[in-house]
């Protein structure tokens, strides 16, 4: 069964009420934000200082410059501490020295032209080549020896992980504390308010009781008779037939209104935000990394379906991106309670990627995503029609996807919503030879330059229902 | 003179006392709601345990439950590929060119696949030969998803591994090497160069291999005749487009005669161009599609057909021939001879009589005439079956001379007339292996059953006609654990090659001739001109050329000329002709066995689309039956009658041929059936391995003795009445027929004004008559349809041969459900497109007009028409929603579920429909179909939509309709919309011919033309302005967007 956050009006009202209460807690949230900001600045400071420390560690190269070159040229296939397409490069110079007794000259040759080295019959070069599935390393003839020195300086003494981890923990601790305290303070405030309210009620009750007792003691009779003489209000109400009639009508109308409202939202899944088998963040992919929507949803160009990307598309990037940046990881844990790295592991499990050996095992398990946008079978919708021909941006219907941590249904996807848009949107005729003749005829006949989809027959029933 | 002819749909309409006809005229839904059955039984009602309060409780509970269930939507999952194949984009169709060569049907086709599932068959327009998919080929995609298919190999009915089967076969074949026993391979016709080569290699590997080709419906006589004359076992090809005069003696060449595929070229010769069209004379016994299309049909029993053919031959070469013929036949022959002599080369003669002498004479006549339509140089290979070899094989099996019998694509236990002999024989065979897609009569008696691929899962090739090659490629991976026969052979031979590699090798070596394999595979066809040239030069017989030349010069002397140059052939011809002239029938009536357009030889009998496809002539679905002429029926006391709901019943008979009997054969009284002859269709009566619903009809093969389609039969009436699922009386339009079919003759068409033969109906306006097409005749305002496309569909009734490819194509494209025999009998068939058949009088045409003028109004016209009962003229008319611009259905819908599009479609919105059926009642064309049940997901309709496998054929672009909604032809709006979208996306204008509907795409005859009338260069505009154009029931002022081109018959006699 689908679960919708905004399904019931009542729950929405309650939600708004809670929101109203939460307004009071705004100052506290602001405090929390401040805490976060300070930790993140601390992070970046630490990272910087880490870099400067490294520069002191090695003498014949600049690790900071090395890091930059490494990230630009090597990181797609190499990591410091793990095997990727190529071997792990942490302390690689030492390793080569230990294994083959080769020095920096060999490394220069290898980096500048590994293929040449392999074909020259170099023993160690061939060994590495075979060890890594005979994938030839790209030659980097543009790198100078100095650059390579810098890289080696960086790989020999990588930025201190320990410090980072420490900072991490501290930040996480701080952040956790912050969020916890804000949670508690909310409850405290609510509790205090409730307590005050309770006290007030109790006090009023006590005061009333005391006053009555005093009155009784003083022999003052509280006038009850008059109220007994008067007709109770409900009886008076029942006697006034007109009033009864009007209120029944009002009640029925009101009931009908709410019943109608309730019934009209049946099957409207706006805001539907199911938990997916893999926590996939559009915010990170489309937002922070600015990946084009159609890089993954490529069928939207030609098909009625936008297409959920097959896992091999994910692996185009995630073959190299095996973990997220520390800040991202931190943010995920803090704000969304998600360990992104674990989610990437889920992808690897599904696609059957053996990280250890950098190989596909062939044991794959397709991901069963929960479908969010469901049009009924009797409605035909074509993505390429709207996006490629109509030039509608994805966001116009799907909302700010680049800000969505978890994808949800932004638009109601009701027929009224479709029709509205068809009535308001002008057909994009410029530069499309299909419309040339039609446009010319229309312009001649009706003297219009622009026309809407509806005017082109876009709200005829049969255009979407067949 | 044209359109005041009267038409009738069924014999019952000629009976003035038939109350059913009256009922049917007035009722859209013939059957009453059985209220009395339900409420009339007071006793039962009062005894029932459900009282009123319980009933209300149930209602309350179910309403509450339903609304509760509606609150929460179900969770849908989307499961993408792990690795998406490069060429598959979800939602976009891929097309593959392939070939069907199942032994009965041979055609180059395109297969439309969606997400890897083949969902539709289309014509391969690149193919010059065999590019038209008939109804069976169109439907064959569903046989792929047949839920009764074999899912793995079997040994004595038990599942077994392929390894075990391979081991058994290999050891047996090895041990038979030097045993003196033969290894028999009994197969269908493949017409495949690769298989032929492979079979040669198999023979080389095992010396004692005997390959026998067996066609269930044999063309042995024609093959033998051709072999005798030209030295090659093949069938001559005919191009009817080049013929000016087509003479057929019992050849149903618009259907499956000699492998079929002649209808397109015939249709092209039948559309009048520059005042000219071919003339077609048919001598036949059963009323066939071909006879129905003929300009002149002469009903003759097969014996008399032979005599007539002998007479024709004799008269053409000026000799005399004995033989008795009725006078009308003699006149017809005399007239034909005169016409032939005007232009001998334009004439062509064909025959469907299974008799070597007849076929020899046919070849001789065509050669003598020098017929341009006749092509013996590059013959067709679509039938290879050898009766003699099959009989020898059965004798050998019975004698215990066969060590192993391997079968593929054949079902002899069902289709052999002497199946009992075969059974006796197979019991003596040490090893029998049958390749089959389904469990059937033959697999039942075989030791091993090898589950075979469907052709859409297979590699293969075919040479349909000499020099015309086509390739078969898989369009889906094998659904089950199945294997191709050729792959198995390769495996048993231990070559380690797959059949794909083998084909590629064969093609590279001898067929491609330097052209690209990939290109050939993409096109599906390769017309090897080099090859054809070589064969032609080798074949070109200078004497034949001379012969033709001499024909032209002196008609009378050509027999002697032929004798001089070809002594052996002509000797055999003269004996052949005299044997024809002396042909006599047996003691009984003559039975003509034929194959139906829908069912063929019964290969796809488990295909519900084909079962529900109504015969073009009798309009009966889900059955075969004995067609009997009216006089014979009366003599034998046989009858058809209509029961209260309008459905037809018929008597049963018992047929006996040479002591073999078939019992419980229902009869149909068929107008036009030659007296003294009866007809029965093959392909029905299959029982083994079939779904129960599909076990209909009787098996005619036991009567197919000596593989001759003509038998002497004795008929005996038996008890009982058969219930037909007939569309005969359904939606009768009687009384309005003037406006339905229009017809004229070529001479009138050429000489008279259009107003004379295609007058536009007149209506009253201001006390004067105006044409219904005028503006003043119109009370409606109309859309502005001048901008953007406005679709029209033109149907040329002259070119339509009622082949039914459009009917099936429409059913496939639009997810039209199969409803089953019971429902069709209740007239609840769902076909969006039907092909109506009308009878009218032929010979008495002039008299008829006079009679009609003296007839009182509203009189039934039995007086005029009964005379023509023996030989009616027939008209076919495909009818689908006419997409009226002023549609009567639109105005009566209370919920506005029907609206009108400015592209011309009448749009039916299923999700709005509440099922009042007002629209169907108000539709003058009776094209609306009501979903009485949820045909999908309903096990009561166990056809294909209720199982996962069958559902794979459903077109994802079209809705599957639910219970309680009306549906009808949408003018394939999903296809036109797709075309528009593609053009918009590419940013280009749409070319004429891009807009197609499923039916227009399936019609390889050019009878259906679809297009945008706002595109002034479109073919459809030409059709719209054609003089032959008329609208169905135009006087109603509905302004349909479907138009018809009236029938022109070339009645010119010499």
TrEMBL record, chain A:
Biased composition (Polar residues): 39-49
PROSITE patterns named in the record: CYTC
UniProt cross-references to InterPro entries, sorted A to Z: Cyt_c-like_dom, Cyt_c-like_dom_sf, Cyt_c_III_dom, Multihaem_cyt_sf
Record-annotated membrane-spanning stretches: 188-207, 242-263
Gene3D superfamilies according to UniProt: Cytochrome c-like domain, Cytochrome C3
Keyword terms: Electron transport, Heme, Iron, Membrane, Metal-binding, Signal, Transmembrane, Transmembrane helix, Transport
Positions of the UniProt region annotated as Disordered: 39-63
Pfam families for the chain: Cytochrom_C (PF00034), Cytochrom_CIII (PF02085)
Protein name: Quinol:cytochrome c oxidoreductase pentaheme cytochrome subunit
From TrEMBL, chain B:
Gene3D superfamilies: 3.30.70.20, 3.40.50.740, Dimethylsulfoxide Reductase, domain 2 (3.40.228.10), Formate dehydrogenase/DMSO reductase (3.30.2070.10)
Region (Disordered): 540-570
InterPro entries: 4Fe4S_Fe-S-bd, TAT_var_transloc_signal_dom
Superkingdom in the source lineage: Bacteria
Span of domain 4Fe-4S ferredoxin-type: 791-821, 872-903, 904-933
Record PANTHER family: GLUTAMATE SYNTHASE [NADPH] SMALL CHAIN, GLUTAMATE SYNTHASE [NADPH] SMALL CHAIN-RELATED
NCBIfam families to which the protein is assigned, alphabetical: MoCo_extend_TAT
This protein's name: Quinol:cytochrome c oxidoreductase iron-sulfur protein
